[in-house]
Fold:
Amino acid sequence: GGAVVAGPVGPAPAAGPARGRQLATLAMPTVGLGALAFFLYTGVEVAAGLWAFTLLTEGRAMDASTAGVCVAAYWASLFVGRLVMGAVAERAGTARVLLAGLVGMLTGAVLVALPAPAPVAVTGLMLLGLAAAPVFPLLTLTTAARVGDAHADRAIGVQIGAAGIGAAAVPAGIGVLLSRVHVELLGPALAVLAALLLVVHQRPAGSAGSAGSARPAGSAGSAGSAGSGRGARAVS
Structure:
């Protein structure tokens, strides 16, 4: 009839070390910059494809059927670019291809922003799509070079989450801007975002964990040469 006192049946889950590793990853400046880069990238990619039809028809007086073909060609340029840039990255290196893609995105956005006839905007749109093609896979591939192997898996998770938010929030914000001000603001908005993405990519940020010295937020570091073959396969 004595009371039975229940004791511990086993060790408690070691949540402390795991949470500590997560916080250490989140505290790294390179992780924050990487997340921002993914946010900006997906925002530009999706907003361009979503609102280009409105710009071409309402802003550049293009007929609806032709504008639809041009928007479809934009998405096709992303697909074709991912195939082509794989071979290019294998020869030129991931860092060079990534930088060229970011510069090409900015150039294409500027062409879209110019108050020029519709063919100029379409050319910019195609350049934007082709240049953007390798950016997402190469930013993902070079995560370990930026944050170190110990933080790479958690950093990639943060980056993918930021990409999803950017793909939803940026096009929605641009849509509000276009509806309240003018449809011609699509090009300038894309150009500003592409320029910010290029700045974030080039900006060094603190230590990359076990990787050692600071590297640009989107740079491949040593992966630009030694890992160029892996980069090319990831793109393709």
